TrEMBL record:
UniProt-listed PANTHER family: 4-HYDROXYPHENYLACETATE CATABOLISM PROTEIN (PTHR37950:SF1)
Signal sequence region: none
Organism lineage: Bacteria, Bacillati, Actinomycetota, Actinomycetes, Kitasatosporales
Keywords assigned by UniProt, alphabetized: Isomerase
Identification of the protein by name: Isomerase
Domain of life: Bacteria
Source organism per UniProt: Streptomyces cylindrosporus
GO molecular function: isomerase activity
Length: 120
């Protein structure tokens, strides 16, 4: 815990290392996670479709961050963390000017009580 996934359009110029480092610091400061417990998986997608537009026009790009935490954080803490994530996305995703419309979102959710893990 926390389990962090970043789904994003492949067309985004993205400082993934800097984002992950800053995100881990935010999760520790805001949600009380341990630094060594923070894990982030980036999942780029080559194709993203929007409405009726031709996906090959690449007029839109998306990034969505999901943070799974053990239960117990207040709704207020989750909101503060999602707002911090959006600020970090603004910082670490290059502005392409008129290249495309960026749709950025974030969600913090409780991990299911069945969550288990192991390390080797």
């Amino acid at each position: 815990m926390p389990q962090i996934t970043v789904d994003h359009s492949n067309s985004i110029q993205f400082d993934q290392e800097g984002f992950a480092r800053d995100l881990h610091e935010a999760v520790v400061a805001i949600a009380g996670a341990k630094p060594e417990a923070c894990k982030t998986l980036f999942r780029p997608s080559e194709l993203t479709a929007f409405g009726y537009e031709d996906p090959l026009d690449f007029g839109h790009a998306v990034v969505h961050v999901t943070i799974g935490l053990l239960a117990g954080r207040s709704d207020e803490t989750k909101v503060v963390l999602t707002e911090a994530v959006l600020e970090l996305l603004r910082k670490h995703i290059e502005d392409e000017g008129d290249g495309f419309v960026l749709h950025a979102s974030a969600e913090v959710r409780d991990l299911d009580p069945s969550y288990r893990k192991f390390e080797r």
